[in-house]
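Assemble and predict.
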Amino acid sequence: MEQVANLLLSGLSSGSVYALVALGFNVIFKSTGAINFAQGEWVMMGGMVAATSYAAHWPLGLAILCAVLAVVMVALLSERLILRRIKKPTALAVTLMMIAIAICSKSLVMLLLGKNPANLPGFSGSEPVLWFNLRIHPQTFWIVGITCLVMLATHWFFERTVLGRAMRAVAAQPEAAALCGIEPRMAMALSFGLAAGVGALAGTIITPLTLTSFDHGTVLGFKGFSAAMLGGLGSLPGALIGGVALGTLEALAGGLISSHFKDAVAFVALLLTLFLRPTGILGRGAVEKV
Amino acid sequence: MASLELAGVTVTFGGLRAVDALSFSVTSGSIKGIIGPNGAGKTTLFNAISGITAPESGRVLLGGRDVTALRPFQRAALGLSRTFQNLQIFGDMSVLENVMVGAHPRLHSGWLAGLTGRTRDEDQRAEEVAFQKLSMLGLETRAADLAGSLGFADAKLLEIARALASEPQLLLLDEPIAGVPPADQARIADIIREVNGAGVTIVLVEHNMRVVMNLCADILVMNYGARLAEGEPAVVARDPDVIAAYLGPEARHA
Amino acid sequence: MKPQPLPAVPDSKLGGTAPSAARAARFSPSAQSRQRIRFVGLAWLLFAAWPLVAGNDYILSLGIFFFINLLLIGGLNLVMGFGGQISLCQAGFYGLGAYVSGVLAVKYGVPPLLGVLVATAGAALSALCIGLPALRLRGDYLAMATLGFNAILSVLFSELVSLTGGPNGLANIPPVSLAGFKLDIASRFFWLAWGVSGLMMVMLSLLLSSRAGRALRAVAGSEIASGSMGIDPFRSKLAAFMFSAACAGLAGALYAHFNQYASPETFSFATSVLLVVMVALGGWGRYWGPLFGAVVFTAVPELLRKFQDAELLVFGAGMIVVLLYLPTGIAGFGTYLQAGLARLRASRRAS
């Protein structure tokens, strides 16, 4: 019983991070129709920049802020200098370009920040909190709390603010939105900034638990992508549900069945979702069949 | 005998009835004109006939056979062919190859034959048919060019050549003349007549009234997805509902 | 039930002039294919001199890896370049081929040549299983499904320790024997790789100028139009995907029996991504593209041996440049040069 509770807790914290990564996928999928292969690298980059700044004796808060800003800058520059120059920005072309950007991001981090794993201290220490019979790492509270906050803020942004509504309009009807004076390119840049910022934040909050290094991004990205598919690609609440469901599933399978195949859980879930319910748990829009 | 028959076909897009319980038939060997204001549902109707859009209700019959459940490629195998108003040419293939793709239903080789090079005779025949269609439309000098490099008018001609390469029984032409220079318009009309003379049934959507009145013995006027009028050109042209739909309700009293 | 076509209208009734033979030959795609195959013959004759040029076994084995990479990239180019579908599992099928053939030989004593055939068929079969559900959906679903499948295969390669040897790899894979002749050294194995990859190039050329190849390219051009031309887009894409997986499976089996060792990281998802990069670098949907892609994929890591860490950056930046400025890749250079020269001449004439 206690073991299951512990597994659920660790699932909840990794699931929260998957949810944030999934959020990044969804935001960009909505605005471009492309799969953002760089999402996982941005998460890793966030963790690496924060850890490097902290190692240079910057205050933790400043290190995190610096990491988020740096990754947002990288994303905006990629959008401005590379994606905007694609002559025919079809979903296929953008997806391929994101693969190239992901490769470059990963190798740049490796070249500039080194190959060694980097660490951050827990935001409020690492002394476990006792709750009933469970020993909980305090970082868990930070992860779950920040994820909830980010989810609420994103929801508020897309539902309540003029800018957020405009971005939804562009995603749904690019031509119509352009006629109403909403610049689709602007919305695209904004979605890249948003996805990168959320991703970088996810990278900094998970690092105290798992460490990070230049080659962590790819797998993290694909687990986040599996979470996005599971919840329903393009759906914001779906990202949360998919992320938490995947994190829990993975922790339970790893702890109760076999730790060897833990990494396969996310991808089996991805394939099953694709084949059985391609719209995901919350997806409403019918997926077009050939 | 009816080559094409629609019985109560309805197509909806999110509550909007693009085609509304439409029934009509096309006599084998004739040319049927379909006209109507923009947004009357003409292209949607073509998509329902060729199987790209599934109707919500109603049936589509080709040569007396119910094809409502068949996919586009299966309908093509039954002798249906079409052109696209918004040009759907294969831009990365040569002009000749585009037309050869049109001959697909008349050829038979599959992947294994293709990989082992047992398609030489068939390819030769396909090339001849394709070249013949190209020269019929005056495109033979562009045969080796990339289809994506064609201008709008030539691309329209290519659409027709490609559709003809399958030697269809029933040919759907979606605005074959719109956007073509006046000099070529008469030639396309002649080609349509010639193809029809060889026994091909044709359904024609076109805005150019003079051409439609000239070519078609039978015209269907659509408005808001439904039939407004149907019959001989002269009768349709005098129909007060048709005049109202085209010129606005005031025209009825003018 | 197969729909029965209506009685056909005879060709002769429709007008148009018959082509003169000479004229048709100039435009003829099948004549172009025959020309291409002659070039392949010429190129492979030149490649046959590699064992003479190569000073040692290491250089010679680079030639073998070039042919193996050509199988991988050539197959991938069919489904991606000509079929317009992203597949992110080429390295997974590569590994599947290597492990199926390797495990059959090491653990069950199956003759390597039979193992190679089983591996090729097995890769195609697993592509069928992935493609059947994924290709029914429109859009990038193949990319997503193959991404997941490669990741699952990677986990299996390193976790099924009793079969695959796990992260330590599978060692002592026996070499292929052809008619009692053991291909256990590079100078012998070279000819197998040389022949198989040349055969694939010939088959691809034949396919592309046949009805099936035209159908595949048409589907990539416009799925809607291809359907109305009587092509089943689903079957076309599925066949291309299976063929590309078969090429990868074959490449993997050859790799395993040549290298006599296979380990999981060779077949990781990262390799799949790099293979996609090579298709783009060589020339997307260009017949000769994979040749250049395979040269880059084989040579660049060797050239950058001293700056190994920069390899990824070179590939990534190269792909960005190609996607932005050279959409037809290295294979399109000839076309660029022609266009550039024509422009130069025109401007000279003008001045």
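Chain C touches chain A through 45 residues (CB under 8 Å).
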